[in-house]
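Batch manifest line 353
LIGAND: alpha-D-galactopyranose
JOB: complex structure
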Amino acid sequence: MKSVFYDVFGFTPQAAADAPGRVNLLGEHTDYNDGFVLPTAIPQRTYIELARSPNNEYQLYADRLDEFVSYVPEQDMPAGFSSYVFGCIRLLQQKGFPLTPVAMTISSEVPIGAGLSSSAALEVAVLRGLRKLFGFNIDDVEIAQIAQQAEIQFAHVRCGIMDQMASSLADVGHMLFLDTRTLQRAILPLPANTELIVIDSGVPRSLANSEYNQRRSECEQAAALLGVPALRDVDDLRRIEALPFPLKQRAHHVISENQRVLEAVGPISVERFGELMNASHASLRDDFAVSIPALDVLVDLLQRHQAVYGARLTGAGFGGACVALAKKDTHATVTAEVLAAYTAAGYHGKVLV
Ligand code: GLA
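JOB STATUS: finished
ARTIFACT:
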């Protein structure tokens, strides 16, 4: 295989690793409430190649951005995409792993800004690569935990652990049912005779970080008023009646969404699975207020298609992609028809999966 690393640095890499993006089927904005999620890996991956640096400098090249960053440990950490990489490196060092400067190239197929976790794929690929190069004894769950901390501490998004666990532990064709409090998990098959469709709305996620952090603190306020450690600890919707706006709406989404995930992993029909996805979108739109008109239009077109069981926005919201569960062997017709109608409505969508 062609080595990007060799082309950039002129010597052979000593290790290579990769990790996938993810799409979440159900369980949105539940992970930072200690709840349940149901993501799967997407085929697109982030690949890295690396070697010990020939000097005291970290050297990083991202081929999609055509950006080169170098950094000596005594300097302030550079900003931008490299903060995810240097964040992972710094956290490993803080945990006592002996790590010396590396040269690294990054090539990613995971769409950026579509809600498919390009940052988690980058973090997990980098940590896998460092584990391989230095022979560190770290398991896949610890990789996800360090990756999540890199995102929180260095990219300043107070995210949950779904994306990093999905990138580290999920695979294409299976759902990762994860309890984000205990990290207990099960790998489950996708509903029989279905296929996934992921379409980008063409609207990049905007305000995502600030609104995301705000939703998280609203959930924390709601939990505090209810006297529970996290909204995960409430399953009776009657308990939230007295909460003020918008905390009641936020709590309603999280509690009902957890119930949807738990129902979805039980013995239900594929039609019911689709209904749960549709209900999830309505809840994200009406109670959690993270949808935008473009996502609502796209989801509506998908939901109306006779070959689609269910559809919803996926990821944090405020732009990005929608996921749909469709009848097997209908991907080409559904995507062509839905995209044509979406274009006629004045938008520019793109099929991602
Ligand atoms: C982002 C975060 C995740 C999760 C989702 C919403 O992808 O990184 O932790 O909270 O949003 O479900």
